[in-house]
């Protein structure tokens, strides 16, 4: 239902503020394909697979990486500047996610042998 709600807001905003002219070119097609195939379908499919195969708390921890990954993609594709403070924040968030999702090898409890 969140897509329906988001669509309603987007459509209303588009009707109110957009020029209603579309220039179809390679950039538009690439952007739409990326948004629909990768960010929507691919991400939701990957999320469902991760939830099925792993612990929900570990999957939820990965959402803390979204801003950092987005900033790195914006830096790589669009030349956005990254400050030292932003890089430090990304490192802290990544470390936190790593600690939260790391496997912990716990010693298996052993049973004492009964004496006869």
Give an account of the 3D structure.
It is a single chain. The chain has about 120 residues and is mainly alpha-helical. Among the domains are: about 25-55; about 55-105, no CATH class. The protein is built from 5 helices and no strands. The longest helix is centred in the middle third of the chain and has 28 residues, at about 25-55. The radius of gyration is 22 Å and the shape is elongated. The model has no long low-confidence stretch (mean pLDDT about 85).
End-to-end C-alpha gap: 65 Å
- Low-pLDDT residue intervals, each spanning 5 or more residues: none
Radius of gyration: 22 Å
Percentage of helical residues? Answer: 55-70%
In terms of structural class, how would the helical and strand content be classed? mainly alpha
Counted beta strands:
0
Overall pLDDT: 87
What is the global morphology?
elongated
What fraction of residues sit in β-strands? under 5%
| Count of alpha and pi helical runs | 5
Q: Major sheet, described briefly?
A: none
What is the ordering of alpha helices and beta strands? HHHHH
SSE blueprint:
Elements (H helix, E strand, L loop, with lengths): L1 H16 L8 H28 L2 H6 L4 H13 L5 H18 L15
Keywords summarizing the entry:
single chain; 116 residues; mainly alpha; 5 helices
Quick structural summary:
By secondary structure, the chain is an all-alpha fold.
């Amino acid at each position: 239902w969140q897509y329906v709600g988001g669509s309603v807001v987007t459509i209303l905003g588009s009707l109110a503020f957009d020029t209603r002219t579309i220039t179809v070119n390679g950039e538009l097609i690439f952007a739409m394909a990326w948004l629909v195939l990768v960010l929507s379908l691919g991400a939701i499919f990957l999320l469902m697979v991760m939830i099925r195969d792993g612990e929900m708390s570990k999957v939820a921890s990965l959402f803390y990486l979204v801003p950092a990954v987005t900033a790195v993609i914006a830096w790589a594709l669009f030349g956005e500047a990254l400050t030292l403070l932003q890089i430090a924040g990304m490192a802290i968030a990544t470390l936190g996610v790593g600690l939260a999702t790391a496997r912990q090898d716990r010693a298996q409890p052993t049973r004492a042998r009964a004496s006869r």
